[in-house]
Structure to design on (185 residues):
């Protein structure tokens, strides 16, 4: 199955493509410049042809980035009749742990907290104040905590970025719970 995965929800974009074995391309994802994304996408389509499945990272994270990925996927899907699915970006952290927490800056003095178990969201990410997040983090016990944002005020948080290759692998798992169109950030 030819698969294309798009992940643009953070400051590091990634795109993965392949038929069995995946090739992943990563780059600094500037919200104001989508040029590298479209250059890498063009190279992937020229090298591998139209995808049969398109996987999109749905965030949480950069609303603009997720919208760019969704719009692009919709255009590719219309042209190729590919199957299109979406997964929460935070389920695709490139780590060995299958259960972990992810926090992020939700702006306006708020943060999100998502809990992932067996690479699936336990529930929708919570929107919390800094004080509320500190309380929730203290109750996580030994769960590792990741963030794609620099959050030095939270000790022990490891910085990671979601991976398009991981999204593609998750979508291929038989018990994967993914979203079907219409997809939304």
């Amino acid at each position: 199955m030819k698969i294309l995965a798009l992940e643009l929800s953070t400051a590091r974009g990634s795109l993965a493509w392949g038929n069995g074995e995946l090739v992943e391309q990563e780059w600094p994802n500037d919200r104001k410049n989508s040029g590298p994304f479209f250059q890498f996408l063009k190279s992937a389509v020229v090298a591998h042809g139209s995808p049969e499945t398109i996987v999109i990272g749905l965030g949480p994270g950069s609303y603009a980035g997720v919208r760019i990925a969704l719009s692009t996927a919709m255009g590719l899907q219309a042209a190729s009749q590919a199957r299109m699915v979406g997964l929460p970006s935070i389920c695709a952290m490139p780590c060995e742990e299958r259960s972990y927490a992810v926090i992020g800056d939700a702006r306006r003095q708020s943060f999100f907290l998502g809990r992932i178990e067996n690479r699936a969201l336990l529930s929708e990410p919570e929107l919390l104040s800094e004080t509320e997040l500190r309380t929730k983090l203290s109750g996580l016990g030994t769960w590792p905590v990741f963030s794609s944002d620099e959050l030095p005020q939270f000790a022990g948080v490891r910085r990671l970025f979601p991976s398009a290759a991981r999204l593609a692998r998750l979508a291929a798992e038989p018990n994967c719970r993914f979203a079907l169109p219409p997809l939304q950030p």
